[in-house]
């Protein structure tokens, strides 16, 4: 299920991106060890991080206002 990030501020978006990045790193490590049941979670995390990066970039460019 897609998460909603539209109502977050820039600082919250950056914090959420860092949180998801560390979660992705842990998931990738667990995948190597073979402890992952849901392999689609990796794709979902990568896409969520990409959405967050896009929204942060839109704030920097002035497209999206706080």
What's the short story on this structure?
The chain has helices spanning 10-33, 40-61. By secondary structure, it is mainly α.
What do you see in this structure?
The protein is mostly helical. The protein has one domain (10-61). Helix content is 70%, strand content 0%. The chain has two helices and no strands. The protein has helices at residues 10-33, 40-61. The chain starts with 9 loop residues before the first helix and ends in a 5-residue tail after the last helix. 3% of the residues are buried.
Shape: elongated
The number of helical runs is 2
Radius of gyration: 14 Å
Give the count of structural domains.
1
* pLDDT averaged over residues: 92
Strand content: under 5%
Portion of residues in helices?
55-70%
- Name the assembly state: single chain
Question: What is the N-to-C succession of helices and strands?
Answer: HH
Secondary structural class: mainly alpha
Keywords for this entry:
mainly alpha
Topology:
Blueprint: H1 10-33, H2 40-61
Helix pairs in contact: 1-2
């Amino acid at each position: 299920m897609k998460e909603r990030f539209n109502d977050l501020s820039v600082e919250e978006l950056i914090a959420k991106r860092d949180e998801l990045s560390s979660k992705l790193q842990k998931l990738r490590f667990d995948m190597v060890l073979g402890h992952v049941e849901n392999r689609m979670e990796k794709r979902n995390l990568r896409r969520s991080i990409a959405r967050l990066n896009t929204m942060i970039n839109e704030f920097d460019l002035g497209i999206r206002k706080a």
